[in-house]
Amino acid sequence: MSTETEAKRKSVKQNKQLESRGRLLVKCPDKPGIVSVLSTFLYSHNSNIMESSQYSSNPENGTFFIRIEYHCDGLLAKSEQMEKDFEEIAANHSMEYEFAYPNERKRSAIFVSKEPHCLMELLWEWQNGDLDTNIVIVISNHEDARPFVEALGIPFHYIPANKDIRKQVEAEQIRLMAEYEVDLLILARYMQILTPDFVNHFESRIINIHHSFLPAFIGVGPYERAFERGVKLIGATSHYVTNNLDEGPIIEQDVERVDHRDDVIELKKIGRQIERRVLVRAVKWHLENRIIVECNKTILFH
Amino acid sequence: MSTETEAKRKSVKQNKQLESRGRLLVKCPDKPGIVSVLSTFLYSHNSNIMESSQYSSNPENGTFFIRIEYHCDGLLAKSEQMEKDFEEIAANHSMEYEFAYPNERKRSAIFVSKEPHCLMELLWEWQNGDLDTNIVIVISNHEDARPFVEALGIPFHYIPANKDIRKQVEAEQIRLMAEYEVDLLILARYMQILTPDFVNHFESRIINIHHSFLPAFIGVGPYERAFERGVKLIGATSHYVTNNLDEGPIIEQDVERVDHRDDVIELKKIGRQIERRVLVRAVKWHLENRIIVECNKTILFH
Amino acid sequence: MSTETEAKRKSVKQNKQLESRGRLLVKCPDKPGIVSVLSTFLYSHNSNIMESSQYSSNPENGTFFIRIEYHCDGLLAKSEQMEKDFEEIAANHSMEYEFAYPNERKRSAIFVSKEPHCLMELLWEWQNGDLDTNIVIVISNHEDARPFVEALGIPFHYIPANKDIRKQVEAEQIRLMAEYEVDLLILARYMQILTPDFVNHFESRIINIHHSFLPAFIGVGPYERAFERGVKLIGATSHYVTNNLDEGPIIEQDVERVDHRDDVIELKKIGRQIERRVLVRAVKWHLENRIIVECNKTILFH
Amino acid sequence: MSTETEAKRKSVKQNKQLESRGRLLVKCPDKPGIVSVLSTFLYSHNSNIMESSQYSSNPENGTFFIRIEYHCDGLLAKSEQMEKDFEEIAANHSMEYEFAYPNERKRSAIFVSKEPHCLMELLWEWQNGDLDTNIVIVISNHEDARPFVEALGIPFHYIPANKDIRKQVEAEQIRLMAEYEVDLLILARYMQILTPDFVNHFESRIINIHHSFLPAFIGVGPYERAFERGVKLIGATSHYVTNNLDEGPIIEQDVERVDHRDDVIELKKIGRQIERRVLVRAVKWHLENRIIVECNKTILFH
């Protein structure tokens, strides 16, 4: 269970089950007949719709969003033609769209600073076969996590970080993201500010965990400020990173009850449990293409 | 807010919004193309799919379930023709189906014994315009609730009940259900056993609230037994009534935390809060045609 | 259940059980021996400690808080002497303290505007015998609630309110608070700003329900802003009113899950359920003398 | 973080803070004056009560339980005399009691079968300094967990187990428990039945995690049966092991929401999250002497 080999073996088994599964995400102006067009297209390509979720931003002149998961025998061989055939439909209905194939696992990078709990939870779920991604690299501005990351066969890169060397640090990080062909960047309690330039490189592809119930306690020291304010619940928020600090589209939030006896240390301890599960949920949903970002909000298709 | 007139006024306004809304529920053998057939049918009848949820019991040779909510201008005038046109499709694909129109409000009866909290919550939600039904009659084996039921303009029928007179009591109840054309029968803490004969009259149309987290504490005295066992959470369960006591399809469950200091009286107090919300949720989902019963379970389309 | 008489009858029964119950709340500089002094005092007055909760703000040089609930046969006749005997102890240890007797029910006023759900929940709990207070007056800047308040035998005062007449409105309200000897003032969705002068009259005796998870969405339109921000949970907060808007000591908070489909109307609907239970809990704890306010936070002795 | 050395270093730091902390648990017939006797005793031994929780099973002729946490400079040197001095008080009031010193860490054994998630969570909390115990041995009937247990410097013993060799297996286990001087035995998804003889060796010292919301789904296959029944919440229960299967005193329970789409595999996945946190909470409370077992229930002093 604790070796790379086993995780790989599990993923191979999963891939086999997933080879005939496709996902189609579409966004377009809402009007009658869209579902008919899409489902008829899939049927004509011998695909059976297994799961379908849709949302209209507005009953009139709104935007239509849909996520379809379909089964198609021999999908791998057919997908190229299917995508080609879809182009005309998309053009006719002004669709933005994405075909995704679960067997083509997304490649994830994890950024972490000193606190390892979120990293550990991600690795644990991944080892367990419950996180459908290849974790291709872990980057940290501390050496602490190296032993157990490398023990799992994952490359660990130590890159010191502070305000003064931010530019060169980010240049190196961007280089590594390219080298490892990273699709998703997970900030698992990475305590450094990212520059707009860096963020723009990875639009809607950086997931952060903020240790408060946003928009309460934006910025630094949320547990300290929660303690000061005397709140009765503390929370955590996972969100896509944008260039407005802690203002990106929220993916998931959760809370736990606290009371007057809980000092800041205790709040952090309770908070770690919340952060772990809130980040993992967000990452899973992203990997399953369940999230659409629209106007600084997320549409979540469970 | 506390008068029948206002509740009626609210419902009129809602009905107006709902006049162009239809719901279609379908159950059939699963195979590719069903969604295409249904969505193309709706599109050809100028209907726009607003909400759609589906479920397959099994990837292979399973049963397919779908609930579609659609918008169609002038639906009232067209629905008869639509339903007629649908017959051939249904026959071709061995569909069981139901067309429902939110403006045709279901007619509900509430049965209650001494404890009024579930009845009160239902009436409150109904007054508030949040329960899309006509409450046409309240039946009780106690007189307690009469004043505030009649104050809302709802007929209240007192029918004494005990084991010895069960047959004639149920005969009278069935007569009233017919007279008031009742679609849904809500047992809001009605503490009498119903005979199989009665239950068969209203298959999948009687919703009960059981004051435990089923299948724990089936039968009488669940709070007493929860206290005896020393559980740390208590719950409530809403379910359709079948002829196996407390074994019917579960619709909704919820729990609250308790501790060793809570005696039976306190458990009941906490439990009332759970019962209220669990019953109301179940009733709402039933009224919105969000529940399909299959093999003693419920499929819930949120 | 729905009449004043029954509510009174219940309260009489409760009073009888409560006649021998006393509560003692103490705040003093922390040092060894305080519990010994207090428990020995109570024992010497034939009182049995039934419940005791304490808290030290700091292990060293901190402040000590304790709430003791004790049983004493014939307490009513003895309490005066007990309180007199306690004076020397209190002086020796620099104690601030309060003796409270559950049978001396606090007198509550409820302020409400148009939305009745919090008022209704309070009245419901009160009718049910679960709110240990006398509701002596309801004040509103709308007439809506009059019928069902007066039906319960509670005086209802309509006082129109707006910015221009605030001074005279508050003068009238203060007069009524004095006339009805009000101990606790509950703002059950009263949508008017109170002046510092008014608030100072009732320090730590005004409980408000704010319809957000504070400190998120301070001020107006919290549900609108929660919708704008795309949060995944909404909440409500009950707190004592101070002269910093929505910044008073928090008593209780709770949340519910929402999603992208929930528009502002739906958020308000879900929010009403949270507001109802969060306000009722806060009021109950206040009535049971379970809350101590310290440095803009609450210590809650459950 | 991942090495034994660091965990030890953390525990040393903690021990230092804890050296002056004592805990006293008392059970005796309820009568006025008990708190006075205990607090005066502690005060006379220069101890300051930091935390105190009590419970009476019954207002009249009940049993009184109290847990006191106190601070005493130089406690280690004084504790023997204190305990000696306490004997007379205990005798006078028919007290059962226990003095506990947090710096004397309890010694824990973990039993595990194939599923490692509960073991992992315990080890994680322990590494993090959040589990105040020495994990002295892990015993399993499978080899899977050996690498990561031994990597933490904890002895791992593989003992194959099945019905036929139960006697000799348990003999070996009892021998190891004695050799390692084990205080607490944690069944972290150990899927073997223990004989009455074994259980009697460790009364109120074996904590099990059962993968259902007891008393629902006692025995084998709870997730399979939860799926069959169509429940809308699944749970887990930690409890002390007695000789009635799954009937021991419940320590903690928690639940998560599930729906009709969750098959047994998904239920197990969700359930693992619940099991992890429910077991860890129970173990923590036990280690902090917060649990008193009385009449097959637990009194929990938080």
Question: For the report, how would you describe the main beta sheet of chain A?
Answer: 7 strands, mixed
Count of DSSP-assigned helices of chain A: 9
CATH topology of the largest domain in chain A: Rossmann fold
**What is the CATH superfamily classification of the largest domain in chain A?**
Formyl transferase, N-terminal domain
**H/E order of the elements of chain A?**
HEHEEHEEHEHEHEHEHEEHEE
Helical content of chain A (DSSP H or I, runs of 4+): 25-40%
Strand content of chain A: 25-35%
Secondary structural class of chain A: alpha/beta
**Quaternary organisation of the protein chains:** homotetramer
Distance between the termini of chain A: 29 Å
Largest interface: A-C, 27 and 27 residues
- Low-confidence parts of chain A, pLDDT < 50 over ≥5 residues? 9-13
Care to count the β-strands of chain A? 13
CATH architecture descriptor of the largest domain in chain A? 3-Layer(aba) Sandwich
**How many domains make up the coordinates of chain A?**
2
Shape of chain A: globular
Strand order of the biggest β-sheet of chain A: 7-6-5-8-9-10-11
Q: What is the overall pLDDT average of chain A?
A: 92
Computed over alpha carbons, the radius of gyration of chain A is 21 Å
CATH C-level name of the largest domain in chain A? Alpha Beta
Enzyme class (chains A, B, C, D): hydrolase
Active site (chains A, B, C, D): 246
EC number (chains A, B, C, D): 3.5.1.10
Keywords (chains A, B, C, D): Hydrolase, One-carbon metabolism, Purine biosynthesis
